[in-house]
């Protein structure tokens, strides 16, 4: 049996590809974000994000509903304020700037949050920079932590419509939820 020799540059390329695959696997395993699926239908974007936070559900809930302090640890927020309208409803006003590469746009959002304690947070924009925005965060105990499932439907308007893309949205989701889960971990220590 004759052995074929792989040219040196091909062998290096294959080694580098193997390294990238292994390196990607390591960082994906370390990420709290298990999956992100984003689809676009005309001007509507839908995102489904599955995450894991190594904290009890109560800690995850406390961070997700700490609307008055979110601007301290969510990177793109400048201001965040919640007003309780009844025990399970909060009106949240937020302002910030979303950035991705050379693109950015300022945003404002007033959302009605319907809270089902330690289970779901449903948000509906009632005023703001987007034409429409609805989301649902679901929490569930999993092992020694919390599985978080987030569904978002958004129709951008104005400056957001000009720059929003699937890549931009994925970047924002990773950045925001990475910071939120970091805060959960910090509080659980």
**Oligomeric state as shown:** single chain
Strand order of the largest sheet: 1-2-8-7-6-5-4-3
Q: Count the beta strands.
A: 8
CATH class category = Alpha Beta
Strand content: over 45%
The first-to-last residue Cα distance is 61 Å
Radius of gyration, rounded? Answer: 20 Å
CATH superfamily: START domain
Q: Find the structural class using helix and strand composition.
A: alpha+beta
CATH topology: Alpha-D-Glucose-1,6-Bisphosphate, Chain A, domain 4
Given as residue ranges, the uncertain stretches (5+ residues, pLDDT < 50) are: 1-28
Folded structure, characterized:
- The chain is built from four helices and eight strands; from the N terminus they run αββαββββββαα.
- The chain has helices spanning 8-30, 57-64, 158-163, 166-188, and strands spanning 33-41, 44-53, 77-86, 89-100, 103-116, 120-128, 130-142, 145-156.
- An eight-stranded antiparallel beta sheet has the order 1-2-8-7-6-5-4-3.
């Amino acid at each position: 049996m004759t052995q074929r020799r792989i040219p040196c540059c091909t062998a290096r390329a294959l080694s580098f590809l193997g390294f990238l695959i292994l390196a990607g696997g390591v960082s994906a395993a370390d990420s709290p974000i298990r999956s992100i699926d984003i689809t676009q239908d005309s001007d509507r974007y839908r995102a489904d994000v599955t995450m894991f936070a190594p904290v009890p559900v109560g800690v995850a809930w406390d961070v997700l509903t700490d609307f008055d302090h979110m601007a301290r640890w969510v990177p793109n927020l400048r201001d965040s304020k919640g007003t309780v309208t009844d025990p399970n409803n909060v009106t949240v006003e937020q302002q910030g700037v979303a950035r991705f590469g050379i693109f950015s746009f300022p945003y404002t959002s007033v959302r009605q949050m319907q809270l089902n304690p330690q289970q779901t947070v449903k948000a509906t924009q009632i005023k703001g920079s987007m034409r429409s925005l609805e989301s649902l965060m679901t929490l569930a105990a999993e092992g020694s932590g919390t599985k978080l499932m987030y569904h978002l439907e958004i129709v951008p308007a104005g400056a957001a419509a000009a720059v929003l893309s699937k890549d931009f949205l994925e970047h924002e989701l990773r950045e925001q939820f990475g910071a939120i889960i970091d805060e959960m971990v910090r509080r659980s220590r």
